[in-house]
Amino acid sequence: MTVDPELVEVGNRAVAAGEAESLSGWVSSAMSEKAQRDEKLALLRAAIGDYETEFGEITSGELAAQRRADRADAVVVRGRPSRGQPGRATKAKSA
Q1: What is the gyration radius of the CA atoms in the chain, in angstroms?
Q2: Which phi and psi angles does 80 have, rounded to 5°?
Q3: With a threshold of 0.85, does the pTM exceed it?
Q4: What is the pLDDT of residues 2-13, one digit of tens each?
Q5: CA distance 23 to 11
Q6: What whole-number distance in Å separates Cα of residue 12 and Cα of residue 17?
Q7: Of all helices (H) and strands (E), which one includes residue 3?
Q8: Is 27 buried (19+), middle (13-18) or exposed (0-12) by CB count in 10 A?
Q9: Domain boundaries, the chain
Q10: Beta partners for 89?
Q11: Which three-class secondary structure string do you get for 5-45?
């Protein structure tokens, strides 16, 4: 197996910091996490496929509407509180 030298260095730093017992263990853990993530994505693809089979294809308009709704419902945890909404913070606007 060939591994990018920069990744080997990251793994070695993790071992030195006590975050992994060995480079081999660090690589094994990373591969396991990748396999789990890939399996979850496959399950998500299947769920979306099942949904679209039953209800029709999810359109770009529906995705945009959901993004807007999600943004409107989001609670910002960084930044300054906005005027008129005590305890809530808003994202600073860029100039």
Answers
A1: 22
A2: -90, 150
A3: no
A4: 999 999 999 999
A5: 6
A6: 9
A7: none
A8: middle
A9: 5-85
A10: 76
A11: HHHHHHHHHHHHCCCCCCHHHHHHHHHHHHHHHHHHHHHHH
